[in-house]
Write a structure and sequence with these properties.
Keywords: Glycosidase, Hydrolase. The structure is a single chain. Helices cover about 35% and strands about 20% of the residues. The protein is of the alpha/beta class and about 725 residues long. The chain folds into 4 domains: about 140 residues, Chitobiase/beta-hexosaminidase domain 2-like (Chitobiase, domain 2); about 220 residues, Alpha-Beta Barrel (TIM Barrel), CATH 3.20.20.80; about 140 residues, Up-down Bundle (Methane Monooxygenase Hydroxylase, Chain G, domain 1); about 120 residues, Jelly Rolls. Strands 17, 18, 19, 21, 22, 23, 24, 25, 26 and 28 form a 10-stranded antiparallel sheet that branches. An 8-stranded mixed sheet has the order 1-2-8-6-7-5-3-4. Helix 4 packs parallel to helix 10, helix 10 packs across helix 11 and helix 13 crosses helix 14. The longest helix has about 30 residues. It is globular, with a radius of gyration of 29 Å. The relative contact order is 0.06.
């Protein structure tokens, strides 16, 4: 009846219900907009400030700036349901947690929350609507579709800096995200072996500041502990964990999580996990009225790793207290969330899953930036999730593009527009160079080949031209001038956008983060234009010009190699990769084709190779077989995996080299100090006949000296029938080239 009444009013006043043309993100649930604007007057009456959310009140005063409070002027009502100032607007306030009612007309502004956080979100919407001292005449009823929305800093690699976290928390508040889970894998006081110890004074003060800023931005600061790798299921460790939580409580933390992900051994026992978590819930969480529900991340946190026969997930579902939230990444470690997938897990854990979405996290492809649109998650399953948090990149500012989009999706998934939200995010983050950042991000969104086989679209608008040009030129040595012109323009724009963005380095920290990729992107654009110049020179039979351009391309390739070998030299996926899905393959294939044509025509032997991987990884182990190989000078290594590898009995991995080399040594790290008596290391000079190689082990590190023996392949096999749980942190062959 109420909606019908609103529709009749709108019919006669020219307003729009569910208006999509207002500049607000996340998109509100219901909007009624009339024609016209109001100008903020010089004076206003603020009603309800003594009862309302103090953070919202302070931001409102900051927003009004030079305006003056008085007994006359525009009336501004602010408060929560039940407050005297907004009692008459109670029926308009959505009866949803964090919901709000916002009304703007030439007589009054109403910011009415269902609770304090709802009032704060009404203020955030008002801030977005205010343009040049003007506000639209509008009525909004809004609330989030998913209860908990935010970010889990749960990646491996360099943790965010303190200042980056402070900027993140403000960003979350502005975009109506209410959750920040602090769980960086490389914080020694979060995980084994130091989870039992208190934070040193400096780190403790920083955490206190983060908690304070989170509160000011209406964000729950969730401190997570990761004790599973070495926890003892006894009273002593249980009390140490509770004592650590008490210490964090005294630092101001009011939200807590326990992670049991990426571990092996006794810590994976679901019965013991449930007993511990229920004890924490009953003796810590529920006895403190200001502490939010406990969150846990299970060991089997995705479907592909779960073993229904062992009943891990159903045990948690049956034994965990109903209020404890259970996290879930989807059908795989890296996957989008689907209707079938969410139903599968909810049936087992007997509660709505708390989604830990592993995007744009790049800790398994650290040489890439993931700056493209957020898409792929079902938009009709909000009521089947208790929470949705995104795991970001170690690049905090670059991650904001995806975080902004996740904020929009989690608030109102049915109205979520991936492409528009992505563009809005970029405009929000770098308005002075949004065009250039959007262009760069469009070509830096895919992950490249990786062990999880998770890929993203890249260079979407260029794809048809790239395909048309490649097919015509590679097969028939022909092309259309239209395709050629579009490619020239694209490569020139790569150079221009890189230069413009680099010039903004002192204005926005995102540019500092992505600087090496901007260098590489520019060089790739220059390379593309020079390769096209080679094509034209060949067509004109201009040998002199062709050779000039060929030499320049080789010089540019050398510069790109140096950048790849200099920047971002992490031990997992070192280097700088850019535009790898469409643009770089196009340039490489065109270069190789035109150089080969030149060699055939003029009987030359110019090198037509670009970077490529001459060696192969072969394995029957599902978690290993898709891992990429890396080559650095004379070292060939498997890209390390971050998760526990379940190596089946008799399973093996083989690295097959492109030719026979004198071998120097082999280094392996399975992440465990126990002697790897279960495995056999072998080498072959022809890929057929194998000989065993003895290795020595010190702590986690296995080493074998090859003493210049000829090798064509290296193999490691689980010689036992039972499965082994290991970490693949290092597998390196060093050869004599």
């Amino acid at each position: 009846m109420k909606k019908m009444h609103l529709a009749i009013i709108c019919l006669f006043t020219g307003c729009t219900i569910f208006a999509q043309n207002i500049d607000v993100q996340p998109i509100p649930q219901q909007v009624s907009k009339q024609d016209g604007q109001i100008n903020l007057p010089e004076t206003y009456q603020l009603l309800g400030e003594t009862e309302a959310n103090p953070y919202a009140v302070q931001e409102l005063k900051d927003l009004l700036g030079g305006k003056h409070p008085a007994n006359t002027g525009l009336r501004i009502y602010i408060g929560e349901k039940g407050d005297k100032s907004i009692r008459k607007f109670t029926r308009q306030i959505p009866n949803q947690k964090e919901g709000y009612y916002l009304s703007i007309n030439n007589k009054e502004i109403i910011l009415a929350g269902n609770d304090e956080r709802g009032t704060y979100y009404a203020l955030q919407t008002l801030k977005q609507l205010l343009k040049d001292n003007q506000l639209p005449v509008i009525e909004i009823q809004d609330y989030p579709a998913i209860r908990y929305r935010g970010v889990v800093e749960g990646f491996y690699g360099t943790p965010w800096s303190h200042n980056a976290r402070l900027r993140q928390l403000q960003f979350y508040g502005e975009n109506k995200m209410n959750t920040y889970i602090y769980g960086p894998k490389d914080d020694p006081y979060h995980s084994s072996p130091n989870w039992r110890l208190p934070y040193p004074e400096k780190e403790a003060k920083q955490l206190q500041e983060l908690v304070k800023v989170a509160q000011e931005n209406e964000v729950d600061f969730v401190w997570a502990i990761h004790p599973g790798q070495d926890i003892k299921w006894n009273k002593e460790d249980r009390e140490l964990l509770l004592a650590k939580f008490e210490k964090m409580y005294h630092l101001g933390v009011r939200s807590f999580a326990v992670f049991f992900d990426d571990i092996s051994g006794e810590g994976t026992n679901p019965v013991k996990q449930a007993e511990l978590l229920n004890y924490i819930d009953e003796h810590f969480v529920k006895v403190k009225p200001d502490v939010t529900p406990l969150i846990m991340c299970p060991t089997e946190y995705n479907k592909s790793w779960s073993d229904p026969a062992k009943g891990y997930l159903t045990t948690l579902g049956d034994k965990l207290n109903p209020s404890i939230q259970i996290m879930w990444t989807g059908d795989r470690v890296i996957s989008d969330i689907t209707q079938d997938g969410i139903q599968w897990i909810n049936e087992r854990i007997k509660r709505p899953a708390y989604i830990w979405w592993n995007f744009p996290v790049s800790d398994y492809v650290r040489d890439h930036l993931l700056m493209g649109p957020v898409y792929g998650n079902d938009t009709q399953i909000a009521n089947q999730m208790s929470g949705f948090v995104t795991n970001p990149m170690e690049h905090a500012e670059a991650s904001k593009i995806a975080i902004y989009s996740v904020a929009s999706y989690a608030w109102n998934p049915t109205k979520y527009n991936s492409e528009k939200t992505w563009k809005d995010a970029i405009m929000n983050i770098l308005p002075d160079a949004a065009t250039e950042l959007e262009f760069f991000a469009a070509h830096n969104s895919d992950l490249g080949p990786n062990g999880h086989k998770y890929r993203r679209e890249e260079s979407v608008n260029l794809q048809p031209t790239a395909q048309s040009f490649t097919e015509s030129y590679i097969k028939n040595k022909t092309y259309t001038e239209k395709d050629f012109s579009i490619l020239q323009e694209t490569f020139s724009q790569m150079v221009e956008s890189s230069d413009i963005l680099v010039a903004h380095a002192d204005k926005n920290p995102i540019i500092v983060e992505i600087m090496p990729w901007l260098y590489q992107f520019k060089l790739l654009g220059e390379t593309g234009n020079e390769v096209l110049a080679m094509v034209k020179a060949y067509d004109k039979n201009d040998q002199s010009l062709f050779m000039r351009k060929y030499k320049h391309v080789k010089a540019l390739q050398q510069q790109m190699f140096q950048i790849d070998q200099t920047y971002n030299q992490n031990p997992y996926q070192p280097g700088i990769k850019t535009a790898g899905r469409v643009i770089k393959p196009l340039i490489d294939q065109t270069f190789a084709t035109v150089t080969q044509c030149y060699n055939q025509k003029y009987s030359t032997l110019l090198n037509a190779e670009t970077d490529y991987m001459p060696h192969k990884l072969i394995s029957d182990i599902s978690q290993i077989k898709n891992l990429p190989l890396q080559v650095k000078i004379n070292r060939i290594q498997i890209s390390p995996a971050l998760e526990v590898i379940r190596w089946p009995g008799n399973g093996s991995l083989t690295i097959e080299l492109d030719q026979v080399y004198p071998g120097e040594n082999i280094e392996i790290d399975f992440g465990k100090p126990e002697i790897a008596t279960w495995g056999s290391l072998e080498i072959s000079a022809n890929g057929k006949d194998w000989s065993k190689v003895n290795f020595t082990q010190k702590n986690n590190r296995l080493t074998a000296s090859l003493q210049q023996k000829p090798i064509k392949a290296v193999r490691f096999t689980n010689m036992q029938h039972q499965e082994q749980e290991i970490y693949l942190r290092r597998f390196i062959i060093t050869i004599d080239k």
